[in-house]
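request received
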Amino acid sequence: MIPKPPVLELLKLEVGFPGAPIVKGIDLKIEEGEKVALVGESGCGKSLTAFSILRLLPQAARITGGQVIFDGHDLATLPAHELRRIRGKGIALILQEPMTSLNPVLPIGLQVAENILQHEKLSRRAAKERVIELLDLVGIPNPRERYTMYPHNFSGGMRQRVMIAMAIACNPRLLIADEPTTALDVTIQAQVMDLLEDLCSKLSMAMLLITHDLGAVAQWTDRVAVMYAGRIVETAPIAPFFAGPQHPYSQGLMNSSVDDGWHYSSHRLTEITGNVHSALGERGCAFAPRCPLAAPGCRETPPPLELAGPDWHVACYRRAEAMAPSPVAASH
Amino acid sequence: MSLLATDPNDRPRLRLPKSLRNPLFVLAVIVLLGVLVMAVFAAQIAPYDPLDMVNMPFLWPFADPSSPLGTDQLGRDLFSGIVQGSRATLLVGFSSAVLGLMIGTCVGALAGYFGGWVDIILMRVTEIFQTMPTLLLIIVILAIGNPSIPLIAISIGLAAWPMIARLARAEFLSLREADFVMAARALGYPTGRIILREILPNALPTLIVGASVLVANGILLESAVSFLNLGDPNVVSWGSLIGNGRTQIRSEWYLSALPGVATVLTVLSLNILGDRLTDILNPRSGERS
Amino acid sequence: MSLLDVENLRTAYTVKGKTFYAVDGVSFSVGAKETVGLVGESGCGKSTLGKTVMRLIEPASGKITLDGHDIATLPEAQMRPMRRKLQMVFQDPYASLNPRQTIWQMLETPLKVHGVADPAERRRIIEAMAEKIGFPKASLQRFAHEFSGGQRQRIGIARALILEPELVVCDEAVSALDLSIQAQILNLLVDLKREMGLAFLFISHDLSVVRYISDRVLVMYLGKIVESADHATLWNSPRHPYTRALLSSVPSTDPAKKIGGAISGEISTKIPETGCRFRARCPIAEARCALEAPELKTLPGGNAVACHLA
Ligand SMILES: Nc1ncnc2c1ncn2[C@@H]1O[C@H](COP(=O)(O)OP(=O)(O)O)[C@@H](O)[C@H]1O
Ligand SMILES: Nc1ncnc2c1ncn2[C@@H]1O[C@H](COP(=O)(O)OP(=O)(O)O)[C@@H](O)[C@H]1O
Ligand SMILES: [Mg+2]
Ligand SMILES: [Mg+2]
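response:
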């Protein structure tokens, strides 16, 4: 059997502002129906990566190199009118802020319907029925009544559901969700993520989930890509990753997140010293200034992603040392 | 351990915000500096006393090198008039704006910070002043007193403060809920200190931008007052020059037009400056956003 | 007697002429050197409670006793000396620092206001504090916007601690920070607590953080405390259905431990007139829950829960 091609493949993707490269050559593959998490500190370029897939970049920002392969096309160079067909229909995007992503002066039903009519030839009536089905699918009670309501009548969680309805309206093959639950409470996060997971399997959609919540990664995705200062430093299936990440940054993240049953009286958190700004002007590994294992060699050229296990890639020169039972790993 | 956002030795470089590289802004600054220099060194620049009859009447501009901008019906030198007149005009403009800024800020700050009945009373008073026709108010004040430059400035200032009061109130109303004001209250700072040291510096940029409009307004109102012959007859200002030229407007139009151009250029420049001040006064405008 | 005793506290907001109680009859206490966590979904009134205790918002009724003095109705002038004992760290490390003051000014003013007249003494205190929070002394003359979020939060903490308070209210103090920075700040808070003998009222919607740092936890729902328990009991055997729902919604970093079914519904801003406020979302609600509002009952051992069925 020939393996199916991946839904999306980023090849050496580079994105930046004039004079300020942010995403510095990313390779990422998302298989059919797979849920991939992209985690990293704020400002490391997660959103920029997501936006560049659909070329929905902020003003000044540009894709400066690399390819975005979807369906055999390179989205980075596709003519605008062809790209428009893919937006929404092939790939859909959900943003963090459910408050600002909806038009406040239009009824939510119309906004979802409008989105469908952009991509499919349907009568208005049929579109409306479809919207009501969708609203029901994403768990909005009384969808027929809610159809004519305005965004301000909805709570944050409900608005995010509307956004999801809009995103899945045209059965996209890939859903990109940029911190979809960061603005929501844990109880609502659980509802929204359960819904997304459910939809992914029902509609056989792949998902790229951008988040900085390791718990959400462990619960709702299949594979994780850890990003630091514009580069992917580790990518692995979640089970082995959470059992023992290999990159010192991933290890630091795991150790600084509070685990079940830890209490300050008995367990001191292991912190990663310093902050991401130290990566500025670093020629070698961006994490080296904060890395407990950094050697002089780390400061010269950035380490490439290397195979470190089945479907497991790590970009670290000191991987052997990082995997040895060191004080950092032992405290976990 | 480097916890700093930037290297401690690398002081933020002074970089002009983009808007300051705007040619219109640079032009406005040059005009204003020119006018300011003219006002300060008027005695040195102006060849004659603008009230002295020094030449033939009705000399057109450029007709006689000793009176480059011509003379009026009494043979008074227009160039000297414009140079000396800038003093009175700017003085009235700036001092009325300062007065308006002070009254308006006090009223607006108290109303915005305390709210409740303090706000209701102060805003009623503000509304009363605001609904009164400005020029009428000034004329009434000038009619009671003896027209002089300070009185004109005071009367314009008294008429102009409500605009600043509203601005200040809005700023204080929102800033008093800001976290850093909450923190100041939690630390037990006295109310006066919170208003003056915590909120005011943050509200000031907006108010100063407002005040730049007041200066422009003050200059225009002073012109209007002088034009109506309500000003001090012994002091030359741009407004009085325009007023003086009114009777000859059909034939010797330059008598009104030249001081008029000076007024318009100054007022326009002030407005452009006001627009850009917001950027200059923002402590973060040098930052990459 | 505890350091802080809050009794039957209510705080009202008036929106469009309608008054509602965002904090509605809350009682709890914080002992000296104790960390009490306060959790609940956003909008349940945590910040309002924190600010009312700080007397930044006027309480509608109830008592706030700090060190034996009732401060609930103290006029601001008499409140001022009490503020030395009671400080606050805010959520937003950007909004809570005055953009037009240097770090030095922000740390010096509280000392001036509270009567440290000698400039050399002030310098000594500020430099000692900078040392304590791991903030480079050379940077004290700079402005807040020149620093990263984590550094700013350190400054916010320094400002709260410069008067050597006994109780610090932390309102979502680490919620806006990245994971790696969050750990730094949590460690710092723990160190400072040990060093200075601080008590905390630690407000957060993030259960894992509250679980880590609290000795005792209060769970709040729509303006009321529904459960109060020591940290071990709360995580191991939560009694209130809401607490259980909250706990089971926190995703674990262990992929094998899938979280329990998510609780349905959302916190609403409409407070039901009778009965338990949680009943609309409660999986075990009975007819009685719609009629009678459950009281916060103290259980043997000092924990308390407000549920007819717990
Ligand atoms: N106009 C700009 N010029 C240069 N850099 C910018 C500009 N706007 C944003 N950035 C930088 O780009 C990065 C944006 O990263 P982003 O993808 O939004 O991060 P994330 O989503 O991981 O938090 C940040 O580091 C930010 O400082
Ligand atoms: N200044 C205010 N005026 C009116 N209502 C407010 C105000 N601040 C908060 N509220 C309301 O009070 C309730 C509690 O808010 P808050 O204490 O901020 O909750 P939390 O901190 O738990 O998220 C919310 O319903 C909120 O909308
Ligand atoms: Mg982002
Ligand atoms: Mg809050």
